[in-house]
Amino acid sequence: MTDKIYDIAIIGGGPAGIFAAYYARLRKLDVALIETLPNLGGQPNTLYSQKKIYDIAAIPSITGSELTEQLIEQINFIGCDKFLGTSVSNINQVDDDKWELTTDNDNNKTIIAKSIIIALGNGAFEPRKLTFDYDHELETNNIRYFVNDIEDFRNQDIAIAGGGDSAVDWAVDLNKVSNRTFLIHRRNKYRAMENSVDHLNSSSVEQLNPYIIKDVKPNVDKMDIIMKKLKSDDIDTITVDKLLVNYGFVSDSKILKEWNIDLEGPFIKVNEHMETNLPNVFAIGDIVTYSSKLQLIATAFAEGPIAVTKAIRNIYPERDFFEHSTSLFEN
Ligand SMILES: Cc1cc2nc3c(=O)[nH]c(=O)nc-3n(C[C@H](O)[C@H](O)[C@H](O)COP(=O)(O)OP(=O)(O)OC[C@H]3O[C@@H](n4cnc5c(N)ncnc54)[C@H](O)[C@@H]3O)c2cc1C
Question: Does the N-terminal or the C-terminal CB of the chain have fewer CB atoms within 10 Å?
Fold first, then answer.
């Protein structure tokens, strides 16, 4: 358990959660921001990092990753406690005025807060894994589903599996530090921006397509990747130090069924203050439903301040006033 009692614990570090955390810090609250993945950003960063977004007010166009960078710059400017690579598995009221959040990190470490904002989008993102049985010991040193540190790949023979933006971009970037880089894709054409594919084609990355991976096996401290060439009987094997699997992400919000929270289908029902049926538990972003709800970043950005303002009124009734950010920064 962390000793601190936060004013607000925010579950989910997508656009809704990051901006709500920033706004809550601006209103001088103690905030914990908890995100399953090792990086903040949610869908724009994970699902469409290179695609442009055209409907954020005052920003004519911005890619998913640029939007994430700016949100992170904004929250880092004011700071908040971030728990990355941490999934909230349950929430329980421990007192009239406190909630305990159970996480899957450090032996189910708990976080205590006076209020909660649930901003978990479509649910926790998990990387799509290799679909066949393999020796999971390989995940210790050889198989990766995320790049946490580029140095992990330096001077190594590496393979990247996948054909989307992320796989192509990582192949080009990791090739700058690796000894040798293979990109394994089951089609001849990539699902990536033309510009990224141009970079790939002018790099020394060895493109293996159309191949599917049939098996992976330990080979001393390296690993063998056994591949089948599609529309042929060819079976080929390469030996590498690391395999980065980049097959995209799946998400799941079934977890909410255990939280005693009122749902409509997979969505959380909220009132005009973004309050759920549970005291001091709010919800914002793609996970909520109300009349006229739009699953947009612009809407998620507006819902954060509404929830934070009501949370302040509930937990600090004496602070029942509203301030503009211009005056907040001057104080
Ligand atoms: C291809 C595509 C294009 C889009 N284009 C646009 C567009 O042009 N304009 C626009 O406005 N919107 C667009 N959207 C929609 C937009 O991305 C979403 O409305 C927005 O991401 C919602 O933000 P969120 O923070 O609510 O959820 P998310 O972005 O889904 O973030 C939720 C975060 O919560 C984390 N999480 C989940 N469960 C837990 C847990 N138990 N513990 C800890 N963390 C958890 C997840 O890992 C995730 O990072 C697009 C969506 C897609 C898929």
Answer: C
Q: What is the DSSP letter of 59?
A: B
Cβ of 253 closer than 6 Å to ligand 1, yes or no, is: no
Boundaries of every domain in the chain:
5-126+250-330, 129-247
Q: Answer whether 0.90 is exceeded by the pTM.
A: no
Q: What is the pLDDT of residues 46-103, one digit of tens each?
A: 888 877 899 999 999 999 999 999 999 999 999 999 999 999 999 999 988 999 999 9
Q: Which CATH architecture has domain 129-247?
A: 3-Layer(bba) Sandwich (3.50)
CATH class belonging to 5-126+250-330: alpha beta
Cα of 120 from ligand 1 centre, angstroms:
8
Partners of 219 in beta bridges: 222
Atom of ligand 1 nearest to the CA of 17: 25
Residue to substitute in 43, 53, 56, 126 for testing ligand 1 pocket (most ligand atoms within 8 angstroms of CB):
43
